[in-house]
Amino acid sequence: MNEVELAGVLEFLRAAEALKNVHRTAWTSTGQRESVAEHTWRLCLMAIVLAPELGAVDMAKLLKMCVIHDLGEALGGDIPAIEQDPLAPKSGAERHDLLALIEPLPEPTRAEILALGDEYEGAASAEARIAKALDKLETIMQHNQGANPAGFDYAFNLGYGTRYTTGHPLIDRIRSLLDAETEANARTTDG
After folding, report:
1. Residue 28: which of 19, 38, 16 has the closest Cα?
2. What angle (nearest 5°) sits at the alpha carbon of residue 113, between those of residues 111 and 116?
3. How would you label 99-131 residue by residue, b for 16+ Cβ within 10 Å and e otherwise?
4. Residue 35 pairs with which residues in a beta bridge?
5. Which of 43, 10, 11 is nearest to 24 (CA)?
6. Confidence (pLDDT) at 84
7. Pick the residue with more confidence: 1 or 43?
8. Domains, the chain, ranges and CATH?
9. Average pLDDT of every residue of the chain
10. CB 155 within 8 A of CB 184
């Protein structure tokens, strides 16, 4: 890597640091807003600890997808699922932001990140489908675990991401457990 490429890598890493400050509509168990970086960390941890039960997947590829899946949010922020417009999917804006964010990287690295991002968005491989499923499950887990504000809509999570969280035996089992927690939380907050 030459000096110009190295400078571009450092520029990219500095820009990606923004994910430590981009907050999601999830709260930690102590009531702090969760950052995108924190969500990504636990998503990667989930992939690692569940790996023996995930079947024949390329773990390096899966982890790369988990790490980069929300990179575009460093520029555009996070749009909560409950606020997303189905007619204007956030994936287009996130891809645009991802392209801008990775611009300083050397071409082979840019191409790899973009290809992984597109594969993830399209759920075009076993690794992408598992990454998408774990992403949804991590979000539901955090919502169930977090010290959420009054009026938090737990019931929304009962339908959240179902298209990605069915069809794999382990994912189905985790979803079932998290849905039971979600239902219990919804009952508790309903009164």
Report:
1. 38
2. 105
3. eebbebbbeebbeebbebbebbbebebbbbbbb
4. 23
5. 43
6. 58
7. 43
8. 3-190 (1.10.3210.10)
9. 92
10. no
CA distances from 91 to 22, 122, 130, 174 (A): 17, 10, 18, 26
Helix (H, G, I), strand (E, B) or coil at 26: strand
- Kindly report, residue by residue over 3-44, the tens digit of the pLDDT: 999 999 999 999 999 999 999 989 999 999 999 999 999 999
The amino acid present at 26, given as its one-letter code, is A
Q: What is the pLDDT of residue 94?
A: 85
H or E stretch covering 23: strand 23-27
Indicate the range of 85-94, 119-128, 176-185 predicted with least confidence: 85-94
Alpha-carbon distance of 49 to 168, in angstroms, equals 16
Contact by Cβ (8 Å): 132, 86: no
Answering whether pTM is above 0.85, one says yes
> What span, in angstroms and rounded, lies between the C-alpha atoms of 190 and 52?
38
DSSP 31: S
Structure tokens at 120: 């993830």
Measure CA 167 to chain center. 19
Angle at 124 between CA 123 and CA 130, to 5 degrees: 50
